[in-house]
Design a protein that fits this description.
By secondary structure, the protein is an alpha+beta fold. It has helices spanning about 15-25, 50-55, 70-75, 115-125, 155-170, 305-310, 315-320, 320-325, and strands spanning about 5-10, 35-40, 60, 75, 80-85, 140-145, 150-155, 175-185, 190-200, 205-210, 215, 230-240, 250-260, 270, 275, 285, 290, 330-340. Helix 1 (about 15-25) links the parallel strand 1 (about 5-10) and strand 2 (about 35-40). This is FAD dependent oxidoreductase domain-containing protein.
């Protein structure tokens, strides 16, 4: 390493904060690789964006991104609204929604004989936009837009985060896979001197990176390095649903209130999954978060992930019937867990 280096910046954490910080530093007009070295270190052997940064919904406010970045980030404008309705059990799912059976259900096939005017009337009565074709009007109690057209958009979190890292690497950032164990302090000088980490190799050898500046961007995992940080973890689960080939899903984000009937002891159950249609024609749905002690593996599902699958059961049925009922079922469902950090004043 050159003795001319004035700054050795180590960023801990390959999430959205760490990757965008790396890009900002390396793309800054004042950045010069001969005087500044930027290193980003990530603990996961699977690379960056393995926590909430890669598994969140991706809803953003209005932005003016250059069109060249749209495909790389999975960016597009979306409609955004609140949806209230009722869930139902598919005939072959039994208690698959997790809330027992009961209520009146009707399969998608039974709507095929109804004329187009019936469906249009139902959609107008429910207030559904004409192009929101992947929710069923007969199960909709109400729809309210949450923002005017063009005011909301989305970005695919994993594509965005990993693209930021790739762009930072193109400009000189070094990416290291390793689990940070400590931040070294030069007590005499009163400043940081390095970052010690173990590799993901079989021997788990320990190494120390020299550092003049350290950016701790490990999110919910940060207290493992600095225990005094008042950060707690919130864990949520999500599913991604792929409709049948040829079924296009219109770009909407829905914050839902769904009432599931139940014949069980607990009675009807109201759930509130968030549903995001993504640009690669998949649909992402997530349930509420739960506060937990400590942080786990960003790729491992804990708690009760089945609840998300249960609560989105009716949504999968709707998606399967999008575009006029084509496709009897979704082609694939992927379950994931994600954790994000919360400070003491975060809601």
């Amino acid at each position: 390493m050159s003795s001319d280096l004035q700054r050795q910046i180590v960023i801990i954490g390959g999430g959205i904060v760490g990757c965008t910080t790396a890009y900002y530093l390396c793309a800054h007009p004042a950045f010069a690789a001969t005087r500044t070295k930027v290193t980003l270190i990530e603990a996961s052997v699977h690379g960056a964006a393995q926590g909430a940064s890669g598994k969140a919904g991706g809803l953003v406010a209005k932005w003016a991104y250059p069109k060249e970045l749209v495909n790389r980030w999975g960016w597009r404008f979306v409609g955004c609204g609140s949806w209230e309705g009722r869930g139902e059990l598919a005939p072959d799912e039994g208690t698959g929604t997790g809330v027992g059976k009961g209520g009146d259900w009707r399969s998608l096939e039974k709507t095929n004989g109804l004329d187009d005017g019936w469906n249009a009337r139902k959609r107008r009565e429910a207030g559904l936009p004409d192009d929101l074709d992947w929710v069923r009007a007969d199960l909709t109690d109400g729809y309210s837009p949450m923002a005017p057209t063009g005011a909301t958009a989305q970005v695919h979190p994993y594509l965005f985060t990993t693209s930021m890292l790739a762009l930072a690497q193109e400009k000189g950032c070094e990416f290291v896979r390793g689990k940070v164990t400590s931040i070294e302090i030069d007590q005499a000088a009163g400043q940081v001197s390095g970052v010690t980490y173990t590799t993901s190799a079989a021997d788990g050898s320990s190494h120390t990176l020299p550092a003049t500046h350290v950016v701790l961007a490990a999110g919910v995992w940060s207290p493992r390095i600095l225990p005094s940080l008042p950060i707690s973890g919130t864990r949520a689960h999500s599913v991604t649903i792929h409709p049948q080939p040829g079924v296009a899903i219109s770009p909407y984000v829905l914050f839902t209130e769904i009432l599931f009937p139940s014949a069980g002891r607990h009675g009807p159950q109201r759930v509130s999954p968030e549903i995001y249609a993504r640009p690669d024609n998949e649909v992402y749905a997530c349930g509420p978060g739960r506060q937990q002690r400590g942080a786990g593996d960003g790729r491992r599902c804990r708690g009760r992930p089945g609840g998300v699958r249960e609560h989105t059961g009716a949504c999968r049925e709707h998606l399967a019937g999008a575009a006029g009922g084509h496709g009897a079922q979704a082609t694939g469902v992927l379950l994931a867990g994600r954790e994000r950090g919360r400070g003491p004043d975060c809601g």
